[in-house]
Amino acid sequence: MFRNIPFNIKGNAEKGREVLEKVMDFALDQPFNPISRVSGALSSFRVDVTESEGRYEVFAELPGFTKEEITVSYDEDCHLSISAERLEVEDDAVKFLCRERRTGKFERAFYIDDIEADEVNVSFENGVLHIILPKAAEGKNKKVFDIA
Q: Where are the beta strands (DSSP E) in 5-147?
C-alpha cells in the first residue's frame, strides 16, 4: 500500500504548502493573474508515484540539487522520506534583483508498506530522483493469528 502521510499542520508543514499551492494554481489559471511572476517561488518539489506488478517507482523533481544534498530514508514505521537541503550563500558583494530559488530544507514523506527495503534502488540524473521500491512477496510480512 502506498499513501501520503496524512494532513497535520504542525507535523507536516509540507501538506499545508500543497494546499496553498493548489489555491495558487487555481488563481494562476484565471485570465488575469498579477501573481504569475512569483508562483515559482511558492511551489515545492513535485513527485510522481507509479505502481506496477512487482514494484513502486517514485520520481521526484529536484532541479539544482546535487546528489550529496539529497537524503532518501525508509524507517521501521514504513515511512519513505525524501529530503533535500540548499544552504543560503551569504555574499555582501552580490545584490539580488530577483530571487525566486528557495533555500532551506525541503521534505516529502510517504507511507509504503510491504516492500523489500534491502533491494531499494535510488538514482539521480538530470535533476530527477528515481526510487525503485520492489514489493515484498505476497504474505511475507503478514502474520495470521489463531483465535482462542
A: 47-52, 55-61, 70-74, 79-86, 104-112, 121-125, 128-134
Which range marks the domain in which residue 32 is found?
2-134
**Angle at the Cα of 53 from the Cα atoms of 52 and 59, rounded to 5 degrees:** 25
Q: What is the pLDDT of residues 86-100, one digit of tens each?
A: 888 778 888 878 877
Please state, in angstroms and rounded to a whole number, the distance separating the CA atoms of residues 39 and 52: 34
pTM of the complete model: 0.64
Find residue 125's DSSP bridge partners. 128
Phi-psi region at 126: left, alpha or beta (left = phi > 0; alpha = psi -120 to 50): left
56: left (phi over 0), alpha (psi -120 to 50) or beta: beta
Asked if residue 141 belongs to a domain, the reply is no
Is 114 inside a domain boundary? yes
- Is there a domain that residue 143 lies in? no
Residue 19 included in any domain: yes
